Amino acid sequence: MREFGEYFGLRCVRPGTTLLEAVGVVCAEIRAEHGLLMTDLGIEKLWESSSDGTDGWGAEIVGQLLLMAAERGPKLGYSVDDLVRFLRTAAVD
Questions:
Q1: From CA 88, how far away is CA 90, in angstroms rounded?
Q2: Helix 19-34 / helix 57-75 crossing angle, nearest 10 deg
Q3: HEC assignment per residue over the chain
Q4: Which residues pair with residue 9 across a beta bridge?
Q5: Residues contacting residue 8 through CB under 8 Å, at least 6 positions apart
Q6: Are 10 and 2 contacting, i.e. CB atoms less than 8 angstroms apart?
Q7: Of 21, 24, 39, 88, which residue is 20 to 30 A from 32 by alpha carbon distance?
Q8: Which residues lie below 8 Å from residue 62, measured CB to CB, with a gap of 6+?
C-alpha cells in the first residue's frame, strides 16, 4: 500500500498478455471477492497521448478511460453489451 496525499493506493504487478488483460483480471477478482468496483488507475493526465505499446503509458491511459466507462456507463443506463458494441463500432483495427 502507498500513500497519495490523504488517500491510500495499491501498486499491483500482475502478469498478463497485456496491461489491459492483467488489470481486467484484477478488477474482476476484487469485484467477485469483495464487491468493490475498481475505477481508477491513478492516471491524472488523460489528455496526454502516447503510442508506446500495449504495456506503456498509453495503455495505462486507455485502461483508466475504460475503467471510467465501466463505472459510469451503467449509471447512465448503458449495459456492458452497449459499451462493447460502441467500442467494436467506433474502434479502428
A1: 6
A2: 40
A3: CEEECCEEECCCCCCCCCHHHHHHHHHHHHHHHHCCCCCCCCCCCCCCCCCCCCCCHHHHHHHHHHHHHHHHHHHCCCCHHHHHHHHHHHCCC
A4: 2
A5: 1, 2
A6: yes
A7: 88
A8: 20
Digit-coded pLDDT (tens) for 28-70:
888 899 988 888 777 777 777 788 888 888 898 999 999 999 9
> What residue has cell string 490523504?
6
Residue reference for cell 492483467 = 22
pLDDT of residue 42: 75
